Amino acid sequence: MLKKLSSVLVLALALGGQQFVVSSAFAQDNSAPAAEAAAPAADAAAPAADAAAASSQGAASAIDSANESTAGAETPYGMGKLWKEGDAVTKTVLVLMILMSASTWYIAAIKLMVQSKLFSQANEARKVWDSKSLQDGVNNLKSDSAFRAIAEDGLKALKHHDGKLTDKIDLESWVSMSVQRSVANVTNDLQGGMAVLATVASSSPFVGLFGTVWGIYHALIAIAQSGQPSIDKVAGPVGEALIMTAIGLGVAVPAVFLYNWLVRRNKVAGESLNAFAADVHAYLVVGVHGGDK
What we know:
- This protein has eight helices and no strands.
- It is mainly alpha-helical.
- α3 (88-125) packs parallel to α8 (231-286), α5 runs parallel beside α8 (231-286) and α6 runs antiparallel to α8.
């Protein structure tokens, strides 16, 4: 009985092993076609990925080209269009502000040179009092020196005080009037052109504002006639009109600074002239030797 049971168990184990081997082989056989089917799919996906990468690169290059073309393109708005499409009033305002700016810088340059020359003459005039007499000191000054003109006027007043019309005026008053008149002539020359700077500084913003109002007026009329009141239609013309205000401020601000600076330098130069005139007056009137008689 035991032998029969052992034979049955051995037979069952043998049959189970064969079934496992057959199942394993069948599974391997089934996995092989699946792997073979996945390989073509992967091969087909590779060109698609390459095509996607190429398209992304093409899109990036297209964006770069668009940016470069936008950066290189000229803006349709600006001073060129403002001058080209502006009417007679707009062009007149622009030309007027250009002339005002040019006159400002021209006058400032001329006044600066005149003031610098006068300051140099003031340094030379201090050496007059190291001479033996006022006449000797005056002769050492340059012929175009303002300080020499003041001293010579004082000397002439001293020598010609005995005229018929001046004999009733005391010497002190006559010499004082002569040197002060000479100082006034020099200071008047220093003030030349300052009124132009003051006018430019005060009026150029309003001239620019007038150009802005005129430009906006015509821009609104053009927009109303076109019937397209969109932001792209409004921004350009209005922005061009506002350029006028910017130009007016650009003309006014330098004129204000230059005017104040030159006025201060004129004041310093005038003080030097008045001080020298006072010294000449004192020497000629109350000097120890009574002047160069």
